[in-house]
Specification:
The protein is mainly alpha-helical and about 220 residues long. It contains eight helices and no strands. The chain has one domain. Helix 3 packs antiparallel against helix 5.
């Protein structure tokens, strides 16, 4: 917990204020949106995961951090540092997203709170993990966010692929797209599994980087 608080201090208060603003936007939309828009679905399966990825890409920087080489060569564990920074940002965004879920539930009562959490966790975890992987591989600032943004946009534009059964198992926003084949729970499990695979790749890359720096 002390290390999480220390990372939070390094990241600064901007993430907190931006997260508060995001909750404010969700609250405003909850009051102003009509009944034709399912805010619980689009807000927490589409908007919130993208916000989490942006936060990880911009606030949870690793390779773009000026101290990256020092940490990689002298730190106890490069992977622990990467995971800790990711966890700090992801948890911060997750806490405020959960507050937003409670507010939307209270105002609109569109779906159960647990269902909103399930809709959010898998795509947010996958996009944020992908942002962490890109942030570790590339030293350019904002590049990781740009890559995840392109993937987000392409996914939004390819919803027509769900007319076939296969793409539905890995489509990021399956409930938002209508889930024509009724596979959204399996989809969330698969997306979470892909995220863990990406973390295994990050772990291996961290090990190779440490070995290279200590030669």
């Amino acid at each position: 917990m002390k290390r999480l608080l220390f990372e939070q201090k390094i990241i600064g208060n901007n993430l907190t204020w931006i997260s508060i603003a995001f909750v404010g936007v969700l609250t405003l939309l909850a009051f102003l949106c009509g009944g034709l828009l399912n805010l619980s679905c689009i807000g927490f399966e589409v908007m919130a995961p993208f916000f989490a990825a942006i936060a990880v890409g911009e606030c949870g920087r690793t390779r773009a951090d000026a101290n990256f080489d020092i940490i990689a060569s002298q730190g106890r564990s490069l992977f622990s540092w990467v995971l800790l920074r990711f966890t700090t940002v992801f948890l911060t965004v997750g806490i405020f997203t959960f507050i937003g879920m409670v507010i939307v539930l209270f105002i609109r009562n569109e779906m159960p709170l647990g269902e909103m959490v399930l809709l959010y966790i898998a795509p947010a975890f996958l996009l944020s993990t992908l942002c962490t992987l890109c942030g570790f591989c590339f030293a350019q600032e904002h590049l990781a966010t740009m890559i995840c943004g392109i993937i987000w946009i392409v996914t939004m534009l390819t919803g027509s692929l769900l007319r076939y059964t296969g793409p539905g198992y890995v489509y990021l926003f399956i409930r938002y797209a209508g889930d024509p084949n009724g596979v959204w729970l399996i989809n969330k499990v698969i997306l979470s599994g892909l995220s863990l695979v990406l973390w295994a790749v990050i772990y291996l890359l961290c090990g190779k980087r440490v070995a290279l720096n200590r030669r």
